[in-house]
């Protein structure tokens, strides 16, 4: 088991007008293949986490998002890697169609707990649900 941090990952919960969350299907050649996940990716050395979130969302969906907010941070130890996550949410800019690189779906917060997702996402889902309950979703 490794103890050092292998990567800082920035993920985005993009919400539509019905507070459904966009999920993307992970490719076969990545860590945790063939499961659903939030859009996002590795933080580059020259980027702030918010810059990474915006870049990754645009690259993976063609959407810029609006009303960005930070949700929280989480670290997770897999058997083969230690990852740190920074989690944001934003609103879907419905003026543009999603142009996803992979299969995508919208799901309610309740459905998130039933989707097959990476183990590390479980803590992020709890953060997202708590944010909704606390009235922190962007309007």
Outline the structure in words.
The chain contains 3 helices and 7 strands. It has helices at 49-61, 109-112, 121-133, and strands at 7-15, 21-25, 36-37, 40-42, 66-77, 82-91, 104-107. The chain has one domain: Nucleoside Triphosphate Pyrophosphohydrolase, CATH 3.90.79.10. The protein is globular. It is of the alpha+beta class.
Q: If helices are DSSP runs of H or I spanning 4 or more residues, what is the number of helices? A: 3
Uncertain segments of ≥5 residues (pLDDT<50)? none
**CATH classification class:** Alpha Beta
Termini Cα gap: 42 Å
Shape estimate: globular
* Radius of gyration, CA atoms, in whole angstroms: 14 Å
Overall helicity: 10-25%
SSE topology sketch:
Blueprint: E1 7-15, E2 21-25, E3 36-37, E4 40-42, H1 49-61, E5 66-77, E6 82-91, E7 104-107, H2 109-112, H3 121-133
Parallel strand pairs: 1-6
Antiparallel strand pairs: 1-4, 2-3, 2-7, 5-6
Pick out its properties.
139 residues; alpha+beta; Nucleoside Triphosphate Pyrophosphohydrolase; four-stranded mixed beta sheet; three-stranded antiparallel beta sheet; 7 strands
In short:
The protein is α+β, with helices and mostly antiparallel strands and 139 residues long. The chain has three helices and seven strands, in the order ββββαβββαα.
């Amino acid at each position: 088991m490794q103890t050092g941090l292998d990567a800082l990952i920035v993920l985005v919960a993009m919400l539509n007008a019905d507070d459904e969350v966009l999920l993307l299907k992970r490719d076969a050649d990545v860590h945790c293949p063939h499961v659903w996940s939030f859009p996002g990716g590795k933080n580059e050395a020259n980027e702030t986490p918010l810059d990474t979130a915006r870049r990754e969302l645009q690259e993976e969906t063609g959407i810029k998002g609006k009303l960005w907010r930070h949700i929280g941070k989480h670290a997770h130890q897999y058997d083969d890697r230690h990852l740190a996550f920074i989690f944001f949410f934003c609103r879907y800019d419905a003026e543009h169609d999603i142009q996803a690189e992979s299969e995508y779906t919208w799901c309610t917060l309740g459905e998130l707990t039933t989707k097959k997702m990476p183990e590390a996402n479980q803590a992020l889902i709890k953060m997202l649900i708590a944010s909704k309950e606390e009235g922190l979703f962007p309007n």
